[in-house]
Amino acid sequence: ILSPDGKRRKSPLVFLRVYSGRLDASQPLLNVNQASKKDKIAELLEPAADDFKSIRGVDAGNIAVATGLDGCRTGDTLMLAKTRAAWQVRLEGMEVRSPVFFCTVEPYAAADQGPLDIALGHLQREDPTFRVDFDEELNQTRISGMGELHLQIVRDRLLGDFKVKAAVGPIQVSFREFLPEPFEHAVDYTRQIGTKSVSASVGLRFLPREGQGEPTFAAALPSGGGGGIGGIGGIGGAVAADDGAGVDDEDAGRKLVGAVRAGVLSGLTRGALLGFPVSDVHVELTHVAAGRAALTAVTAAATRCVAEALRSHERTTKLLEPMMELEITSNKECLGAVLGDLTGLRRAAVSEVQARDTDAIVSAVAPLSALVGYSSALRTLTSGGADFSMRFSQYGAMTAQEQKLTVERMRGSG
Fold this sequence. Notes:
The protein is 23% helix and 35% strand. It has 7 helices and 24 strands. The chain has helices spanning 113-126, 148-161, 250-267, 295-312, 335-343, 374-382, 400-411, and strands at residues 14-17, 22-24, 28-31, 37-40, 43-48, 51-55, 57-59, 63-67, 78-80, 101-107, 131-135, 140-145, 166-168, 172-173, 176-178, 183-193, 196-208, 216-218, 239-240, 281-290, 318-331, 349-356, 359-367, 386-397. The strands form 6 sheets. Strands 10, 11, 12, 13 and 14 form a 5-stranded antiparallel beta sheet that branches.
């Protein structure tokens, strides 16, 4: 938008609602969601269609637009900076599920990488369901979203609104990888940094938890006195220092466990089969030993331990695909064609068929990969006499044949 002097504003616009009290443009704010980061509004505006009027303040119940809140994201809670810690609250934000579609984005030239990163950063700030990841192994930027239309809009905004010079790859379904059998793995890690040698060893146990979803981690390493580290559940183990003696300091133990946790969760973001995140797994820490002030080495050792463990079990890794709950409303004349398409081409499991006046309502569960382009297919199949809605249900295991075909297709060998 333009400021009163006709110059284009560079600061992003933040739409906010005041729930209590009064907000003035000059008041400093705390972002409760971001470790009480301090922010200050540059200008407070009142929106009216595509016009914005500068105002001094806004009362409870009203919506306003603020500039200057460069670190703010959609769903953050803001409070006055002078608010006492005991009175700080965090309003309920958005519940965001893991994206189920992704595609790659690559700049045409090295000079285009900067504008691409800036544009992706803006899109991430305003849309919590949009995610950006960088695959260091493939040297690719991957963007993920909640649906085909979602990523198509992102692509149009990147190329149209932000004028980014980049190639956007085809939209694909985001799978998950699953380890069906329990096992253990350990590594010894050594690295030379300058004149110093840092080392660490980590042992992990991987346990399948089908239907759990996101991976979990636990450890309960005893202190020198034999007591566990409070607040952390899991198994027993040993924490060693340079001289092999037990670490008595509970805080040091917590830092070690935290370093292992960070390495484990980082390693699980990329599976060995196709590079998709690993889910439905619970990881337990069985052993950790490190030199003093070597938390980075512990994290690196944990990441390597996970990577080696995943590679050693690549052949038994299962692919999980997102399963969607479908509700299709069709005229009864086309019901047979709809059911035939679902149970045949779409690999769907029909759970219920209900009659409602002249329509039939079909409830089913189908893999998302079989529903790509389903809207157009259903319209063609019923001559426009049906519509549908779908929502994510859970990740389900593929059949051996489907997994083989998927792996061959994505590796380019089929």
